[in-house]
Amino acid sequence: MAAAALSNRAGSALSALRQSLNFLRSLSTAAASPASGGAASKKPKRKKKKNLFEVAQFLPNWGIGYHMAKTHWTGVSYQITKINLYKDGRHGKAWGIVHKDGLPAAEAHKKISGVHKRCWRYIPNLASTGSSPSIKSATEDSTSKSEAQAA
């Protein structure tokens, strides 16, 4: 009888120990579950912005003749006239004509600063049709001369 009482007491002590360990486990998993749930409710990754060359690579002729501007500029853009690419295709130098409110602000080509900064965008409504105004005027002059000679 004494042996049965001892084994009964050892069994109850063991069950109490198991209960306390299970209680501690439940506390630790309850604390860890909001962290894993928080990871699922994170904001989606931001889209990586592009530098001038990463924008220009999808345009015909690497964007020469097209308008590009930094995202925080309003009313100012560059019409790309020359691009010097490095071997990797994501770095280099670029030149263009400054345009303010859609009109050229200067006739001279200017080296564009900040071409490697990740804030460039393509401006579709100001894109040229593939020829510069000086080329257009030269073709118009030649057609008017040929018409004058034919008459």
From TrEMBL:
GO terms for molecular function: structural constituent of ribosome. One of its GO terms (cellular component) is mitochondrion. This is Uncharacterized protein. It comes from Punica granatum (Pomegranate). The lineage of its organism: Eukaryota, Viridiplantae, Streptophyta, Embryophyta, Tracheophyta.
